[in-house]
Amino acid sequence: MKKTFLLAFIVIASVVARAQEPRQSVVEMETTMGTITLKLYDETPLHRDNFLALVNRGFYDGLLFHRVIKDFMIQGGDPASRDAQPGQELGEGDMNYRLPAEIVFPQLYHKRGVLAAAREGDAVNPERQSSACQFYIVVGQKFNDAMLDRVQQRIEQATGGQCKLTEEQRETYKTIGGTPHLDGQYTVFGEVIEGMDVVEKIQLVSTDANDRPVEDVRIIKAIVKE
């Protein structure tokens, strides 16, 4: 009887523990070049919930990846891109609100494949508030120690010495890659869990002088999977 009771208690405790675990929200983004699956972080709830709300209302359906820079990132979410004419300069479109920064450094940083919020520059946006809708996915490159030392100086200048790369981050940037010079300054709120090969293909497309793909790369549909 005691053994049965103990087993039942363990099973119930396990179920309760799983129910209390943070729920990772997943978004599937079908594009004209393939499907990208994104996991959103619970550590950045404002950005997570805002992104999910926009996806659920179909906001991203039909929008372009309007800014693509090889070995750096691919950016989308400008509402003006839905009906943009060929060659039209994009990137200024937004919603009528901003999101407060949720910079969770050093836990969340700009390793290859992360999803982050675009924003206006520090000169006009010193609080580093995020665009309500524009996002980017990091491709980046691999770094060596000398390069990371120079990047560290750049980060310290940008953050007033508040952010220092950890040994774990340095190793990630050396082996996996990313864009460390953005750390501590932009909100990272998710990552690619499937379809990084699609992101790689997009970052290689031909672009114009404004970094817009010459041939449109469009988000066909985005849906919440979990």
Could you please describe the fold and organization of this structure?
With 226 residues, the chain is an alpha+beta fold. The chain is built from 5 helices and 10 strands. It has helices spanning 2-20, 45-56, 145-159, 167-175, 196-203, and strands at residues 25-31, 34-40, 65-69, 73-76, 98-99, 114-117, 130-131, 135-138, 188-194, 219-224. The protein has an 8-stranded antiparallel β-sheet. It has a two-stranded antiparallel ribbon with strand order 5-7. The longest helix is centred in the first third of the chain and has 19 residues, at 2-20. The chain is globular, with a radius of gyration of 20 Å. The protein starts with a helix and ends with a strand.
* DSSP, total strands: 10
Q: Report strand %.
A: 15-25%
Biggest sheet, open or closed, and with what strands and sense?
A: 8 strands, antiparallel
Low-confidence stretches: 1-21
Task: Please state the overall shape, judged from the principal axes of the Cα atoms.
Answer: globular
Biggest sheet strand order reads 3-4-8-6-9-2-1-10
From the alpha carbons, calculate the radius of gyration and give it in angstroms.
Answer: 20 Å
Give the structural class: alpha+beta
Order of helices and strands: HEEHEEEEEEHHEHE
Share of residues in helices: 25-40%
Helix tally? Answer: 5
Provide mean pLDDT, rounded.
92
The separation of the N and C termini measures 39 Å
Task: Briefly summarize what is shown.
With 226 residues, this protein is an alpha+beta fold. It is 28% helix and 21% strand. The longest helix has 19 residues, at 2-20.
